[in-house]
Amino acid sequence: MTWLVTGGAGYIGSHVVRALTASGTDVVVIDDLSTGLAHFVPARVELVTANLLDYDTVRATLADHRVTGVIHVAGYKYAGESVKYPLHTYQQNVTAMATLLQAMADTGVDQIVFSSSAATYGTPDVELVDELTPTAPESPYGESKLIGEWLLRDVARSRDLRHTSLRYFNVVGSGSVDLFDRSPHNLFPKVLDMLFNGSVPQINGGDYDTPDGTCVRDYVHVSDLASAHVAAARRMEAGKDLEPVYNLGSGSGTSVREIMTTIREVTGIDFEPKVNPRRPGDPARIVAAGDLAARDLDWQMRHSLTEMVASAWAARQEVGQDYPTVS
């Protein structure tokens, strides 16, 4: 059995690919390399360089490799930037999903694990987000992920399709020093890159109604996230029941100030972050429960915050001055 990983040359997707291959699963990757790197894909795994909007290539890949299931990670993942580029976001996240599902239908592939997002919740007014918390996305990115979930639901009503969607917040760390997050919009790579280059990291808002005045969020290690995707695929293959949606949450959350303190301890670089005014729209606290995923997908926070930071810092140091950022 072969599984297709879309976006498998990206930060999250490449960790999913390695988790699958480590479990003995045959894998093929489709990635247009707009943000991914070809060398993130193991040499023994075929990389098809194409965008999911290319129906003919997607269909041929599914058929030629006798794919039995898809882990769909590819997409335009920048919530803030999606406000500037809504049409691009919908094209890459909604139209591409529809194209993928059409190709799956035409080749008889009936299993898909969708890498969704907790951005579907918007700014919920609850202490702990669970799967029954109403969705209210506040960006084209969050909306596009929710529409992707709707597409799965609606297609499953019309034909045999086993599916589940995994929602999560901030993915950090590295499972290997040669795999790293190079997003210019994510907290960990931004802060570590600034420290590597001798700049002072910044905090947006220090006067929130939280224990230390900074925002509290879920931060999950990318390897833990990848393992949950593989567990969902395994459960699907075994014919076991799956919920339509799972939150991959910490249940407790971590503040930005706690992250800065841990980064200082791990790197050995003594710094005091500059505190800027709040960014509009940043809620004080968003934390998700992971109980359902723990029950069905063996979801656990297997890495401490120190381990998350240490693995990210080791990867950042390994790549050195040749750090390829995403424009």
Automatic annotation (TrEMBL):
Task: Name the domain of life this protein comes from.
Answer: Bacteria
Q: What is its EC number?
A: 5.1.3.2
Catalysis: reaction(s):
UDP-alpha-D-glucose = UDP-alpha-D-galactose
Q: Which key words tag this protein in UniProt?
A: Carbohydrate metabolism, Isomerase, NAD
Q: Name one GO biological process term.
A: galactose catabolic process via UDP-galactose, Leloir pathway
Pathway where this protein functions:
Carbohydrate metabolism; galactose metabolism
Which GO molecular function terms does the record list? UDP-glucose 4-epimerase activity
| Keyword Isomerase carried by entry | yes
Q: Which cofactor does it need?
A: NAD(+)
List each copy of the NAD-dependent epimerase/dehydratase domain by range.
Answer: 3-249
User: Record's PANTHER family?
Assistant: UDP-ARABINOSE 4-EPIMERASE 1, UDP-GLUCOSE 4-EPIMERASE
- Protein family (similarity comment): Belongs to the NAD(P)-dependent epimerase/dehydratase family.
The protein, known as: UDP-glucose 4-epimerase
The record's gene field reads galE
